[in-house]
Amino acid sequence: MAVEPQILGRAVKAAQYRQHRALDSRLASVGSTLAQWDALRAIGRTPGASARDLAAATFQSEQAFGTLAGRLVAQGLVDRRPGRGRRIEHHLTPEGKRVLKAGHAVADSVLEECFEGLTEPEREALLGLLRKIEGQPER
């Protein structure tokens, strides 16, 4: 029996929704939300990145990321600095690095719970299939 694409798409969305709700709920314990922690993670990976690059990395519009970055600056988690030309660079503050690190521990715990029902070969297969859908080469 063939799997209907809409059923498959909904199953992917349901798994993502469950994961996001658990992450958002548990990240509150370290003073963050999922969107904030994801932005901190992107900035931590690419210090000095522009809002445009960070918006793409976090799957947001530039406007939405700009609003979020403004909140992170107000909370003392991110510094914005002038870059080349009109570019504004984003960097984590020491407090931003602390929240990011604490968030990693929370995320590791939540994601381990989300995937605990899968064996290691199943996890590898799932990752390979998701990368294939995304158009990334298998690693």
List the helices and strands and how they pair.
Elements: H1 5-27, H2 34-45, H3 51-57, H4 62-74, E1 78-82, E2 88-92, H5 94-115, H6 120-134
Antiparallel strand pairs: 1-2
In short:
By secondary structure, this protein is mainly α. It has six helices and two strands; from the N terminus they run ααααββαα. The protein has a two-stranded antiparallel sheet.
Question: Could you describe the 3D structure shown?
Answer:
The protein is mainly α. 66% of the residues lie in helices and 7% in strands. It contains six helices and two strands. The chain has helices spanning 5-27, 34-45, 51-57, 62-74, 94-115, 120-134; strands at 78-82, 88-92. The chain has a two-stranded antiparallel ribbon with strand order 1-2. The chain starts with a helix and ends in a 5-residue tail after the last helix. The relative contact order is 0.13.
List keywords for this structure.
66% helix; 6 helices; mainly alpha; 139 residues
Class from helix and strand fractions: mainly alpha
The coarse overall form would be globular
Provide the gyration radius in Å. 17 Å
Residue share in β-strands: 5-15%
Q: How much helical structure, as a percent, in the residues?
A: 55-70%
Strand order of the largest sheet: 1-2
Average pLDDT across residues? 94
User: Oligomeric state of the chains?
Assistant: single chain
Compute the number of helices: 6
Q: List segments where confidence is low: pLDDT < 50 over at least 5 consecutive residues.
A: none
Q: What is the rounded distance between the termini?
A: 30 Å
Please give the number of β-strands.
2
- Element-level helix/strand string: HHHHEEHH
What can be said about the biggest beta sheet?
2 strands, antiparallel
